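G., the chain you wanted modeled:
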Amino acid sequence: MQNIWSKLGSTLYDIVGDSQLIAYHPTGAVSSSTWFHNENWLAFNMLQSGHCAPVQRGIATLRKDYEKKPSKPTLDGEPRYETIEECFYKEINSSAPKGIGQRTGHRFDDADVREIAYKQIFSGAFGHTYGHHSIWQMSEGKKEKPQGGIDATVNSWQDALEAEGARQMGYIVKLMKGRDILSRVPDNTIVEDYKKKNIVATRGEGYAFIYLPKDTTVTVKFNTIAKDKVRVSWFNPRTGKMKEIETVESSMQKEYMTDGEDMILIVDDVDKNYVLLL
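Predicted structure as tokens:
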């Protein structure tokens, strides 16, 4: 089967060349790099973290692709869809393969889709795919199913266009465009205990973004971001608003804490004169 997909990709590339992007959409929390990373027709790597695997598993796959040589862009082509039931295809409370979750009856909400979007972009993805359970199947409305299932929806595709998670994706674009994009790289080392606290950080020329889950305390090391002073601010991923906290010496380390909801901590080199995002 791998040979068939490889032949299809190379044939497409022979026809369109570099005028169009060609990728491969895999199944499961694996990446196209598993088979095709060195193929000249593969413009970028894609993974499918899906609707059951833990967020960290998809991030680990994405980070491996980000660090591969030769370098190729990478993104998640099918992460959690808003309002889809978590692990919908599994029997409730059934045993599951190691590293994969179980069906719980929970439907992914804006917090779920927001979490994976920020964490993956901060981990090196060149973009992100947002999906809604009602839109992909053009659902006409709520569909009750005793056992749930792939086509059970909570609203119509028209109503889903106004979903909270969809609206909040625009704030990610706002944040990314608010600072120099091309210098940005993943860098969790600017915070302490990032693994234990489920924190993901990224930095660029004279700035850093740090994604913090709700009720999380983080200690930030400023000396890799600026030589003199830094301005520290909160960015609210639910509203797209930014609020300045303080200006401190870059030689310091300071502790910050989210209050009830996930937040993005922004650290700017004062000398760069970056604007507040309103």
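The first helix runs from residue 2 to 16.

Shout if anything looks off.
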